[in-house]
């Protein structure tokens, strides 16, 4: 591991830097990455932001979005930039499997690797780690990195503030999750003071749905929602054919699981969706119920206690059956 003083020395002169984040990036992934990008370019660095895959259109408005390189659409260019980089910042993930094929190129790179993340059980691929599982978002940790590690709060301009506020807002569930502590609110207030237009950011992220997404949401709630009252659990399941019928694109399914969790008395909600390569699961829970434990133990995944994800190599029907078969093991916790 390199020290803070060594890192400061490195960042004191222009460097070739790559920033990357997890596949199918969400608001925190893109907010933290673009926020860090806007900070580093002020210091004169040559910065490239590479995402493993595409990401939702409702995030494309953020400052410097036009500079993002999507790995799956620019493989050779991305690999070349990774090979040339002196430093690689890895944001909002802590294991290289989360960035798909890009992960192996970063693993073998000679660059110094820096992790900024808030997920459990990090893989030891990094040379510098700014990590806190109690942080509500990677964007919160990027703010802390700039302000308290680098001591450069003066470099949080409007672009940086806008991106970091977006990341914190989305990963804290618009400041309603338990992770949105008083410290998080103070950071949000500082970002607003520094130029983040909180009302506009909320509108661009949450009031920017396509007609297809709204019709698909209505279909899911009317036809695909199943309530398992014996386990205080709700689930929504979707097939590839249903995705195609509603012309669903990246980001259109985001947040749907939260509607299932919003039902009175529900303690665990699941959104199980059949993708081209495998079946994906998004779990949300309330209180102390460990959604991440289910994903880690049974579905090749993990995450936070109340928000986790996983996958299955089985078909949709068998995956749904597997999920339901797990519930009796957790019945006492679900009925508390």
What's the gyration radius in Å?
Answer: 20 Å
Query: Which homologous superfamily in CATH is the superfamily of the largest domain?
Result: inorganic pyrophosphatase (n-terminal core)
- Helix and strand element order: HEHEEHEHEEHHHHHEEHHEEHEEHH
CATH arch. level architecture of the largest domain = Alpha-Beta Complex
The largest sheet is: 6 strands, parallel
Percentage of residues in helical conformation: 40-55%
Structural class determined from secondary elements: alpha/beta
Task: Note the beta-strand portion.
Answer: 15-25%
Give the count of structural domains. Answer: 2
> How would you state the average pLDDT, rounded?
96
Number of strands: 12
Number of alpha- plus pi-helical segments = 14
Unreliable stretches (pLDDT < 50, length at least 5) are none
CATH topology description of the largest domain: inorganic pyrophosphatase (n-terminal core)
How do the strands line up in the largest sheet?
A: 3-2-1-4-5-6
CA distance, first residue to last residue: 43 Å
CATH class of the largest domain: Alpha Beta
Summary?
By secondary structure, this protein is of the alpha/beta class.
List the helices and strands and how they pair.
Layout: H1 4-10, E1 16-21, H2 27-42, E2 46-51, E3 69-70, H3 75-84, E4 87-91, H4 102-108, E5 112-117, E6 128-131, H5 138-149, H6 158-171, H7 182-193, H8 198-206, H9 211-224, E7 225-228, E8 233-238, H10 240-245, H11 256-261, E9 268-274, E10 279-285, H12 291-298, E11 302-303, E12 307-312, H13 316-326, H14 331-334
Parallel strand pairs: 1-2, 1-4, 2-3, 4-5, 5-6, 8-9
Antiparallel strand pairs: 7-8, 9-10, 10-12, 11-12
